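Researcher: I'm preparing a figure for a lab meeting and need a structural model of a single chain. I don't have an experimental structure, so a prediction will have to do for now. The sequence is pasted below. Please return the structure as tokens so I can convert it later.
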Amino acid sequence: MAGGGDFDDEGEITGINVTPLVDVTLVLLIIFMVTTSIINNPEGLRVDKPEAATGQTVDRASILLVCRKDGTTAVDDVEVTTDAQIKNAITDKLATDRDLQGIVQCDTKAEVGRMVHLIDLLRDSGVKKYAIATEQPPKEAGG
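Model: Understood. Here is the structure written out token by token.
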């Protein structure tokens, strides 16, 4: 065959074209970059926590109960709809660590009664230590 360096005398392929491999790799890289940026920015899990100047960091094993202003509840980032689901999640986690601390994180616009109810569920399930999640207020400039 004249002018073709990819074939020898018997018609066998002796070279490999890597262009399609590079194309596929670049497409996969772009897909992974886009999905990673979406995963790192979970819009549906935002909670506007109240501010408290005396807040502390939790250093022990904990379970996070979140109540949002729209009335939805999540336990460790998993949506739950019934009290039974909440209690099951608490008792499952409590079985692995008896010194578990419950953290209740409610939106500033959430009902106070919902927060108290979540604390009651923690206590009924056997959690002896619990806290309310807050965030530090912004520091005033020049003060």
